[in-house]
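TODO from last week: model Peptidase S24/S26A/S26B/S26C domain-containing protein.
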Amino acid sequence: MHPKTKILLEKLQRGEYVVNCEGGNSMAPKIKHREPVLLAPVTNPRLLQKGDIVYFKSKGSFKTHIIWTVRKEKDSVRFLITNIKGKKGVWVAQQNIFAKVVAIGKQACDEFRSSL
């Protein structure tokens, strides 16, 4: 695991909000390449819904993508997470979702953090 990812996860587990920047265009135009996003820790995955953008782990890598479908089961929740176009989806268990995007862009992140 990359040291930056380890620090980010530790902060989220302590309940802290974290600013993160990822490369790539899979979420464009909603989130542009290397655009900062503010991540809020997920404390109750059952509150997540279709359209939420989340920070998650799949197949050993960490990404920020959108929830396309929610499947609530008796004791857990599973999420179909895709890129912004609904392509390349992967089913993710609730324990592999660590944060929800609550602000996009430097100004939005700064404004949100100052309101906390």
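Done. The longest strand covers residues 61-72.
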